[in-house]
Amino acid sequence: MQRLNSLLDYIKRADKLLWLIMLSISAYSLLLLKTVPPSPSGRSYFTVQLIAIVVGYFGAILFTLIDYREISNYWYIVAGFCLFLIVYTQIFGQAVTSSGGINAKAWIKLPGGTFQPSELVKIGFIITFSKHLSELKERDLLKSFPQIMLLACHAMIPVGLVHLQGDDGTAVIFFCMFLAMAFGAGIQLRYFGAVFAALAVAFPIAWKYVLKDYQKDRFTIFRHPETEPLGRGMQQIQGRLSIGSGQIRGRGLFNSDTRVSKGLVPVQQSDFIFSVAGELLGFVGCMLIILLLLLLLFRTLRVARKSQDCLGNSICFGFFGMIAAQALFNLGMCLNLLPVMGVTLPFFSAGGSSAACLYLGFGLVQNVYMHRTNFDKVSLHR
């Protein structure tokens, strides 16, 4: 009886609409991956995703059992562990290379597969950067230029380390998370103007001295991929053809005579999962993905508005920035509006480490909602 009462109390305190949105996203993701042929090694993307979702939900529930303010008190442990993961990956990680010039050392081997530590580091960054922002907010230092510079240095640590791994797509996501969290905390707009001005000045320099040839190729080819239909432009051309072939209602799930079943779109289970929805479920299926992600984002902002402190607000904005940026860049590259940059569609793309860690982020947002009323019960340690 006591366990039943505890369960009922948990359900009562939880954001049930947020849970419903997440369960809908999970079911849709599994449905799409069930239609994708297995990997060359015979591994089912559906099975891997299902395991990741179960692990992710379990971790999310565990996260909700401890007040997020209590979790933030151990920010230094989180920061140290994240730094260890990135450095370990840089030294002992597994590199992914291709003839196109890609050389990203961003994975580590685990029994039965690989794990991408930067996905877990995103969650750690949400915790540590939120703690940093809340400390400055509490001391009324968010208008101090030296403190703003320290915030920027904090954010540039994961950005720089992930860049050194060769995973610039993830580095961009970290940067977007930094911007979203800083904006949500109330950093003055003139600092954002300075950041964008600096980026405009730095881009030509980065183009000449930082970007690799394959990265430059992605910028130059994405608007006219038809100029190299069998080379650099093939992935986006094939993805666009699959999306268009579905028309309004799609060609039907589990149809054996589809481009999906023949694997014509490279990496369709991950970076181009949107093309799977487009071909099999048409415009309706594509819009359903966008609608579910928008509902998740709007609900996250609502939880941020209801939070009682800067810490909870920043956690929600960190999750919002991560999901919004990944969705924007992924959909942009699938629709030929942005260059291919190796960013997955959150919650929908295949990838065990990415999926499981994203659900941990959802757990943090749910944590903020569930503990929004006991503000005075937890002391914050500096």
Automatic annotation (TrEMBL):
Q: Which UniProt keywords apply?
A: Cell shape, Membrane, Transmembrane, Transmembrane helix
InterPro entries documented for this protein: FtsW/RodA (IPR001182)
Q: Where are the transmembrane segments?
A: 17-33, 45-68, 74-93, 170-187, 192-210, 272-298, 310-329, 341-362
What is the topology of this protein in the membrane according to its UniProt annotation?
Multi-pass membrane protein
Location in the cell reads: Membrane
For whether the record's keyword set contains Manganese, the answer is no
Protein name (record): FtsW/RodA/SpoVE family cell cycle protein
To which species is this protein native?
Answer: Caproiciproducens galactitolivorans
